[in-house]
Write a structure and sequence with these properties.
By secondary structure, the protein is mainly α. It has four helices and two strands, in the order ββαααα. It has helices at about 35-40, 50-65, 70-85, 90-125; strands at about 10-15, 20-25. It has a two-stranded antiparallel sheet with strand order 1-2. The longest helix has about 35 residues, at about 90-125. The chain is elongated, with a radius of gyration of 28 Å. Keywords: Membrane, Transmembrane, Transmembrane helix.
Amino acid sequence: MSAAPQTGAVARVARYRGGVVDRDERREPDPAAPAGLFADELLGLDPDDPEARAFAEHLERMRRVRPSYTVEGYLAGVSDFAESANRARGHRRLVAVVLVGLILLGVAWAVWEALIFVFGTFLAASG
């Protein structure tokens, strides 16, 4: 069984029941065509529209898959939180600032308690 002759950029492969379309990868891409999400899923939206760009960036962030069980994954999550907090306005930004403040307060309390324990142990052992 052989493939049918090519016509343009698409050829039909006859080896499979029902035929499979085999794209010709030798074609040069159209430089005027939109790239990325605007060519696939956001077809018809203006790539120069700020709202369409923001939605495309949102889709890219939603599709990012990182391992959350590694240090790099944790740091990437912190980076995503910081970027989203910087984009937020109004009460969402206030909530992000309060959350960060509470986290830092908890870290400061844990460090203080650790220092008290360490110094208390050393002073009790030496005295």
